[in-house]
Amino acid sequence: MSIALLLPNRQTDDLVEAILKRDPTISIQIYPDIEDPDSVEFAVVWYHPDNELNKFKNLKAISSYGAGVDHILNDPGLPEEIPFARIVAKSLIEQMNEYVLTSILNHKRSFPQFFNQQSQQNWLPVLAKTGNHVGIMGLGQLGKALAHYLRNLGFKVSGWSQSKKEIEDIETYQSDQLDAFLKDINYLVCLLPLTQETDSILNQQLFSQCKRSPYLINVARGRHVVDADLIHAIETDQISGACLDVFRQEPLPKKHPFWQIREITITPHIAAVTSDVEAAEQIVKNYHLSLRGKPLINQIDRNKGY
Ligand code: NDP
Ligand code: OXD
Question: Is this prediction's pTM over 0.85?
């Protein structure tokens, strides 16, 4: 019996070592060298090729290698009834907080402009931008922690989520209150899961509801953004600029117009990276739970899609 790792384009040595450190009895097969598919009872996946999971006749459960599970749900060959889970880790929260704060402050204090000016030996003071109101779309594991973090640093914070939340010192809005949520914010952070409902949510209509030309920080999924609408919103100053970590196609193609837009900062899907040690801890626990037919830790609700 074994765990299969389907993590194309990733080095797997550290994850294998971390899993074996927790349980040296586990046998691990690494895609594409799966020699004994019938022995696979548990699969760990990250943007795996479609229709591979249904080759494992004895599969009992699946784990995402990260926080998102859109790549699992998008597999047309995802076996029905097989439970799957995602990774929730302290280090993801810490990295995400740090990334978003850096993006906000870079924009607020015009650092990209100063880097540019330095390369031209150009001494041109630019004052700090006013407005400290951050709106977070998604108040889950990452969004809620970010809300507390920014609030403790003195930002005004609002949050928007599917269901209404009560969080001290944070203005919270539920799904039918998007307009009110968007109206006053200076920074808009997307930390939603990618689902049918949230696909392309950052579009022209939403941007037109923002009244203070907020700076967009998308650290969720590229498919949340309608690229052409974002470019138009920046050109018409509905959105003052954007820091984008995720894209519809990754790596972002060299010809994509985002590369040429001064108001857009691009990072290569690096906001919060799963640590192999933390992932291994949850993978091994879930492997053993699945063998006993028990619910998984951080199991996904298939109906909700997150
Ligand atoms: P969670 O599942 O914990 O939280 C999701 C939040 O989004 C919940 O508050 C949920 O509302 C809300 N939500 C879901 N659907 C809707 C909707 N239709 N309308 C309004 N609110 C909605 O996710 P995480 O916080 O763990 O992660 C969020 C995403 O961040 C991941 O799915 C992943 O895509 C991305 N990510 C990106 C990384 C990077 O490096 N760029 C790293 C890690 C994650 P409710 O609480 O009411 O259910
Ligand atoms: C994740 C990610 O979902 O890195 O963990 O995007």
Answer: yes
